[in-house]
Amino acid sequence: MNHLIPFWFIVIAILWTGFFILEGFDFGVGMLHGVVGQDEAGRRAAINTIGPLWDGNEVWLIVAGASMFAAFPGWYATMFSALYLALVLLLISLIIRGVAFEYRGKRDAARWRRTWDVLLTVGSLLAPLLLGIALGDLLHGLPINASQNFTGSFWDLLQPYAVFTGVTFVLICLQHGATFLCLKTTDGMRERSWLAARRVAPFTAAAVTGFIIWTHVTASTAFFLNVIELLAVLAAIAAAWLVYEHREGFAFAASAVTIAACVVSIFVDLYPNVMVSSTNHAYNLTVYNTASGAYSLKAMTVVVIIFLPLVLGYQTWTYYVFRRRVSRKEFLPREPASDVTAPPAGSGERSESSAAEDARPRPGAI
Amino acid sequence: MTSIDLARVQFAFTSINHFFFVPITIGLAFLTALLQTAWYRSGRADYLRLTRFFGALLVINVAIGVVTGIVQEFEFGMNWGAYSRLVGNVFGAPLAMEGLAAFFLESVFLGLWLFGWDKLPRRVHLLTIWAVSFGSALSAAFIMAANSWMQHPVGYVMVNGKPQLNDIWALLTNPVFVWGYAKVLFVSLVTGAMIMLAVSAWHLRHRGEPEVFTRSARIALIVLVPAMLFTLLVGDELGVIEGKYQPMKIAAAEAQWTTCQPCSFSLFQIGGGNNDETPTQIIEIPHLLSLLATNHWNGQVVGMNELQAQYSKQYGPGNYVPNVFIQYWSMRVMAYLGALVLLISLWGLWLIRRKKLETSRIFLWVAIWSTVLPFAMNTAGWLLTESGRQPWIVQGIMLTKNGISPTVSVTWLWISLIAFILLYGTLGTVNLILMLRYSRRSLEPERTETDPHAAVPAVQY
Fold first, then answer.
1. CA distances (Å), origin A78, targets A16, A127, A290, B408
2. What is the rounded distance in angstroms from the CA atom of residue A241 to the CA atom of residue A170?
3. Are A124 and A176 in contact (CB under 8 A)?
4. Alpha carbon separation from A252 to A176, A197, A241, B140, B208 (Å, rounded)
């Protein structure tokens, strides 16, 4: 028995969990930026709370996918070809979302920006929905034959459990993003973020509870929830309560635990399967019948042990560097005629520079 | 079209598009880091303004380069399921390593660089752009290691008909990889430097800040000349190596049906292709093909007919000849454009020495339009490499036609192909418009504060 096989299953679960914790609030901010930031300055402030972070967060998904390819080629091949159209839609969502961040500020035209705002919102909504559907399908089962090939149609992907998983993920991301915005914005935007969190929280808690029970019933014959499942429910309820108590930091931590526990639940309940076959459980894909050879796993283990802590280190540092709240005032157009003014040294320069930023056309700025 | 054709067209389309942005990112990240280093060391405001200016162009491309890269990663599993299943344990490893070691580095530090202007000490901020540059180059290394394994599989044993990795070091010292990667790095510098030269030339032609843009044009040319020269030299050596491991690819690039020794190189041909074994070859240069393919004056190049017979015996009946038309012409487009870029850059260097660069309106005009050359050259190079590997998806191990996902329908493939064409077409156009717009902007005005240590404003979305 090769211990690296379960180890790599854990690594992949960690990567998916890390992705949802981090990119989860990016998705939430993407969906909420129009609600929380009610004018151009507000929307820009909302987007800039995740500006330096979203790209690095998204890499978690890419590494998760590549790790599945490398460690469990059979899983990767079956899953990606089975979820084909859902993944095409996911890719489109991720693409328009990614370029929306970069392009929306590149032209000073209301229609241009509105277009990217809409694309950003839709992309940020569709991505967690589709990823939730994908993960739900793994657990609930898809028609898969003896040679590990998917035999169903697109509609087989949209089973009630999977769709419910997707909706649950969207709700958690909404709440996660709202509490993130509470922590990262000021004044009116902070208020509105909190209000959004308050509105979403009860639905999220209900959805998570429903999702966990459904997951438990689908995957397990035991009566009681396992620890992780229990944690997800408790964290979701705690997150809602903390939002009502107006404890921003704890509410964000609780929503992070909720999202993590939900993802981990799926993986824990899945193991040792990686994809369930609804045709015949004998055809289930497991970690063992899809894994790579011992040598590849060993080589990649060395790499992951060296680099994952390193990545966590510099990514944490990034969060520390950009720990400040982002204020809408920084993005208000001040003197339209003024050009880029020399910012004074110290902490005042941000508002200066961003005011100048809005006074477009502005020469030479990125 | 069959599902194989559709899957191939889709992969070709998305890869070619992806590789428009990759060399810009690698090249411009390096040049931007160079400019910022010059600013850090000299304190000259011009360098800072150039850093910000070319950094803006870099960032516009990184976004689309990153998202088109995600498509590449997903496509293996979506369209090439049987391939992924068979070779994932060799081919997947470098991809996973790429994400962990390189892609994280590039993405996280790009955020730090972009938004960290006023938050990080200058030295640390300078390091972040170097981390981006290093990360993007490292990323290409792993991808090229994976791709080279498809051209020349090494470091594996066959277990139950499946290749199993047994030597990762062999993957990373694969001669096809070492030379292919060097070529990608040099060609990225060529692409980045050519963009920098063209943008500078445009501003010089429109009399914008001649002093600053002469400076950037000079830097671009100083990078461009050796980079292009090395691209040609490395490309020549790569041709010899590929000739050894993939003789069919090289024979097809010269439309060489019969074995020859010594072999001449034709500048052009009329006719040719897989059904015409006797094209009219025009201006033949004796011995040149022998030199290119084997590094020997009288080297032997085995013809496609002989290789076909040999492969049929070795691997069973089938057609092992790639598309000869694509091979012949992509090889020539690549080489001729490379030579053209070298000539243009030498011309520019000569003008710099004579201090006439900013006034030579002809050169400036040529330099502006030369931006398209590296892209045409890169695309031709990839067509030569990838189409020349056909009919194999992994040379000698798996045929392309056996690599596709067995259960993905033609309808799905059509849907995804059309979706990607529409999306890439739109975003490519937007990207081009933004690039042109930002290339034509004037530089940020010089900062007027008296304190040279004042923070430079951060960039925000």
1. 18, 20, 10, 11
2. 19
3. no
4. 6, 10, 12, 37, 50
| Contact call for B405 and A349, based on CB within 8 A | no
Residues B418 and B408: their CA atoms lie apart, in Å, by 15
A82, A335, B304, B331 from A161: Cα distances, Å:
17, 54, 56, 53
**C-alpha distances in angstroms, B310 versus B314, B316, B318?**
6, 10, 11
Strand partners, B281: B269
DSSP string covering A294-325, please?
HHHHHHHHHHHHHHHHHHHHHHHHHHHHT-S-
Measured from the Cβ of residue A245, the count of other Cβ atoms closer than 10 Å reads 11
d(CA B363, CA B352): 11
Query: Mean pLDDT by 10-residue block, N- to C-terminus, for chain B (461 residues)?
Result: 90 93 94 94 89 91 86 92 91 92 93 90 93 94 94 90 90 92 95 94 86 90 94 89 88 84 81 74 81 82 87 89 90 91 93 86 91 94 91 90 88 93 92 88 73 71 76
* Alpha carbon distance B71, B11 (integer Å): 10
Of the candidates A90, A68, A59, the one whose C-alpha atom is nearest the C-alpha of residue A287 is A68
Give contacts of B428 with chain A, Cβ < 8 Å. Answer: none
Query: Closest residue of A to B431, CA-based?
Result: A103
Domains of chain A: 8-329 (1.20.1630.10)
Q: Where are the domains of chain B?
A: 3-246+324-439, 247-321
Per CB-CB distance under 8 Å, the chain A contacts of B438 are: 106
* Predicted-complex ipTM score: 0.88
Phi-psi region of A187 (alpha: psi -120 to 50; beta: other; left: phi over 0): left
- This prediction's pTM: 0.89
B419 contacts A59? CB cut-off 8 A = no
Nearest to B15 by CA among B131, B137, B144, B132: B144
Residues B412 and A85 sit within 8 Å (Cβ to Cβ): yes
Q: What Cα–Cα distance (Å) separates residue A130 from each residue in A219, B397, B417?
A: 21, 35, 20
Asked if residues B209 and B445 have their Cβ atoms less than 8 Å apart, the reply is no
- If we measure between CA atoms, which residue out of A272, A194, A258 comes closest to residue A230? A258
